[in-house]
Amino acid sequence: MSTNPQPDQPLDQYRRGFLKKLGLVGGAAAATTLPAVGHPAWGGSTLGDAVGDFFQSHYKRMDPEEIEAALGRIERRAKKRLGVEIQVANTPPIPGVVFGYAINISKCQGYRRCVTACVEENNQGRDSQVQYIRVLQMDKGGMNLETSEHYYAPETVPVDGKFYLPVQCQQCDDPPCVKACPVQATWMEPDGIVVIDYNWCIGCRYCMAACPYWARHFNWSEPQIPAEALNPVTHYLGNRPRPRGVVEKCTFCIQRTRLGRQPACQEACPTGARVFGNLLDPDSEIRYVLENKTVFRLKEDLGTEPKFWYYTDV
Amino acid sequence: MPGSNTRSGVTRWPWALILLLIGALPASFAQAPEAAPPAGPGFSVLTRQDNLVYYPCMHCHQALKTNASPRPLYAPHLREQPHGGGTFWCLTCHAAEDRNQLSLLTGDQVGFDDAYKVCAQCHAPRARDWRHGGHGKRVGNWQGERTILGCPQCHNPHDPVLVPSPPDPAPPVRIGFPPPSERTVKHHTVWDTLQHDQNGKDAP
Predict the structure, then answer these.
(1) ipTM of the predicted structure?
(2) A217 with A297, same domain?
(3) For residue A265, which residues of chain B lie inside 8 Å, CB to CB?
């Protein structure tokens, strides 16, 4: 069969034949290649769920029924794709609560227990580099972040002459990441937590460039978590299984703290260096620390108003 | 002008001003408010007495005569008591007659679950922080009923300094990157440059 029109062949016949062949080839290609993609068809969803995901609106624009449907889709997808029964909650913020965090850097010994607990609680990929908490090993007598080391691995900590500065999302009250997002996929909730709608995020990573604390992380690949290690208690804005190509961040363990539980990092800290509570409650521990201890905020001069303080015993 | 009148008044009667200040001094001392700690929320301390291996102590001590003289001790007691650098003896904190109790300096006795009251006698600022949440570990919820760990849950009362322990593994290195020890660049940071400019000599 020749690919060029023959001199005795009318052009419309050639064209018809060409289109026919094209359709055959295309159909065959579609039939052979589609099932060969790594994940089941529609990314592990039914066709209805895939369509529902595609037409899902912004979190703040969805009415309760639409959110309920979205939660169901996430649960079914996790069941089909990871084989785990998860519960995705949509717990609303507690009225009259704004969360604040304080860390006693005199007490932090650099054990990294918070990092481990955070990864397990928030379903971060075990193979990726995504860790919400970065414990910086700093030289005593200065606050030079440039010479800090966060890959430190000595036999025992603390090392002489060093102190430890855990850095995570500072939940800024004037968050530059929110301003940078071109699609408003990230915003500050009424309880002060900056959250992301992973379904709305387009993965442009502008927010990562805007964040002065390196608190946002990009999923270059789909987070890989062993099925038995997946935390099934999740929140839509928090630790639900994330797709590839979205940004994620610390949410003060929104799935725990909105139920009154401590964040996983505070629960795991063996030294009690972490203080968490309601900034609006005058009797809370966080308010005692802010009013009675010498506190500072990281890169305060940038004016992002972090709701995250560091203090020392002195 | 009223302003110039006032100024001339002060220059004319400086001694009156000084007298006034001297008179006001004791008053200001008397009024200097002692920074009162805010009334903290109620709390409960995680119990520890049931986990003590040798408790109740009176199992043995009811048969033993109280010997108040400092001497080397043998198992199950510690041989040395580093806390206090040798100034303390057992009976500083443990009640002499009822060994199931601790004793305060006032002579009152408290149980092992209330050991924080013994510690607070010397470590008052730390105890105040602990009472209000600036020191020590809270367990359970961040709101509502507050349960905290007592001092001996973290600190060995006989040797309170925490010993160093191994950290959890370091973060993974991005695929394709050399290990961090090899890629640490020994460049002059902005900080070093600033110091160099100020000192006029090379930064280390």
Answers:
(1) 0.77
(2) yes
(3) none
